[in-house]
Amino acid sequence: MTIPRWILPIIIISQFCCTSLWFASNAIINDLVFNFNLESQALGNLTSAIQFGFITGTLVFALLTIADRFSPSKVFFVSALIAALFNISILLDTNTLFSLIVLRFFTGFFLAGIYPIGMKIASDYYNKGLGKSLSFLVGALVLGTAFPHLLKGFTNLISWKYVIIITSLLASFGGLLLFIFVPDGPFRTPSQKLDFSALFKVFNKRSFRQAAFGYFGHMWELYAFWAFVPVMISSYQKLHHIPNLNIPLVSFLIIATGSVSCVIAGYTSIRFGTKKTATIALSLSALCCIISPLLFTINSTTLFISFLFIWGFVVIADSPLFSTLVAQNAIAELKGTALTIVNCIGFAITIVSIQLLSLLSTNMPSIYNYTILSIGPILGLIVLLKRKKA
Prior knowledge:
By secondary structure, this protein is mainly α. 76% of the residues lie in helices and 0% in strands.
């Protein structure tokens, strides 16, 4: 069957537009702290709120097997519009820390109808070459996540509110674009009934469990790294008395470099194998965590920023590969639910690592904080490399 050429680009563009909502509050955290009289720990709280919302959303979507029982394109569209509505509500002058946390929670809740559903839609179209397709899709997620930092980097002379307005409009556009141009895929195997046991059925296969646990280890590191990239740069700047840097712009570039690594990893996996490529990427990101204190002590801004670029490159490269392994080893009629529940657990793990980093930042020298991010990749590697008993 010939798939129209525009399908994958449309999914990629839509995914980028909608996931720009993810770190919208992170990019303008200083403005939110100033305008709503928030405490300095608001970054960790707001980031955890959207992660917790995403977890809750994915759990609900998985329990109700929404991705497998309903049209994924329609679910994506409705979720995008509602998430955009909650995002733009940040502009209300009456907001407090509590209301902002609630708004970020529900934005995250409906992102559960965007990110895993986008992967489900791609898997319904690209039965072969799924790894390459998902590499572009996760690359779009990376750019979408980084995009608010870019907006903030170029909007220092105008109101921070434009970051919220632009990301909300982009999400609405992305949802509409996919709804109009991407109908349900030819390889979709819809589930006809509600099946609460699906949450447990998906983990019956050993190969599926390995892929899932590799993904969980990767997630322990990923979002904590992304959330604290601006903090790392700011800490280094203060430690070595470096002249002012455009931290939002540099943060965007560091996070966005992961979009390139996703695509490269997708093509590399065709030659060397999906599991092997993912294992190498996970090993390299673990190494970056471990050696990070050394780079903080070296008084060379070029070297430190280059290191963060390398870290940003390898930290996400394995993500589309683990998603590919999950999709390939899932039960066909529960593929959407499998992707959703694995995302749910993975993002639950991100809350723990983000909150732990927030806690350590007040009780431990900053140069040592990020070594704890190696725990996830190391445990993931142990599961991935464990051989089946005879």
